[in-house]
Amino acid sequence: MGGPNLEVFKFGMYIMFPIATMYYYGTNLDKRFSVPDFWPKPEQTNRIPFEKEEIHSELERLKQRRLYLREKRLQNEGKNEGQDS
């Protein structure tokens, strides 16, 4: 039905479409479409402790934080109960 002309056209489209896309957008895609400071720096991310001492120190830090927040919450609840009466 379409004959060889259709096949030549399809082949041309398969070849020319990627080439035209690459020509239009160019090779500096990182500069054109990147968002500056999108990914956090390594020092800003959480670091998983692997050594035994690091794990124990991290657990101690989390325990101290939990106890501090608990104490703060209990103080706020005590103040709120005193105001309600």
Automatic annotation (TrEMBL):
Signal peptide range in chain numbering: none
Subcellular location: Membrane; Mitochondrion membrane
Pfam families given in the database record: Pet100
Keyword presence, Oxidoreductase: no
Any one cellular-component term (Gene Ontology): mitochondrial inner membrane
GO molecular function, one term: unfolded protein binding
Family indicated by similarity: Belongs to the PET100 family.
Domain of life: Eukaryota
Protein name: Protein PET100, mitochondrial
InterPro entries from the UniProt entry: Pet100 (IPR018625)
Main location, first listed in the record: membrane
Key words, A-Z: Membrane, Mitochondrion, Transit peptide, Transmembrane, Transmembrane helix
GO BP annotations listed: mitochondrial respiratory chain complex IV assembly
